[in-house]
Amino acid sequence: MSPYQNIKIKCPKCGQVGNMSVLPSLNTALNPELKEKVISKEAFEYTCPGCLTKNHLNYTFLYHDPSRKLMIQFVAGDDKAWVKAVNEFRQMPYSTRDPLRANKYCVRAVRSQNQLTEKIQIFDAGLDDRVIEILKLVMLANSFKGRLLKKPDHAFFYKDTDGSNNIIFFKKEESMGALKVTPEQIAAVEKDYAAALQDTMPGELQVIDSLWAAAAIKQCRKAD
Description:
By secondary structure, this protein is an alpha/beta fold. The protein has one domain (about 60-224). Helix content is about 35%, strand content about 25%. The chain has helices at about 35-40, 80-90, 95-100, 115-125, 130-145, 185-190, 210-224, and strands spanning about 5-10, 15-20, 25, 45, 55, 60-65, 70-75, 105-110, 155-160, 165-170, 175-180, 205. The strands form 4 sheets. A 5-stranded mixed sheet has the order 3-6-7-8-12, sandwiched between helices. A 3-stranded antiparallel sheet has the order 9-10-11. A hairpin with a 5-residue loop joins strand 9 and strand 10 (about 165-170). The N and C termini lie far apart (about 55 Å). The model has no long low-confidence stretch (mean pLDDT about 90).
């Protein structure tokens, strides 16, 4: 059975209506060949048959990797849509949530396609996204200290073609450089912030982002 659903879409440039096959969810055990299309964001692209303009679409998507016991819910839309989707997921019947809990699934929610592909790469690298989010803030504080005008405002994890793990920093859309992630840095975060990394919510949806990391750092420092 195909995981795709066909929808009608109107090209914002020329107005021609065409058919697009959207991917509302992906189970990597059933359709592993489609995973790269999600990471490259090709799964969210539509080429108009009339003017050949390539359009990038935002639509809600569920990623499921049974081998890693991982689910990532990408929620497209505004703040209202985000709150609604997260609440609905958390209020699912126990019959639906219990298997996730029993199998100690890692369940995440993200608000952008960049966050979605980042999470996939983090877990594919065998890393903990909570550690990476904390490490981003630690790196930001240590490596860009004293920079007021050129201080990055966000960062993303990515795996380079040479196999190395990296964090690239941005100010708006401008790249401010990248730093490699070393095993020593990972171990230091795991040690220094162990209290925040105790997984007390297996199978429950969690939003792990910079806000979560800032709160975790504050919590651990207050405990010290």
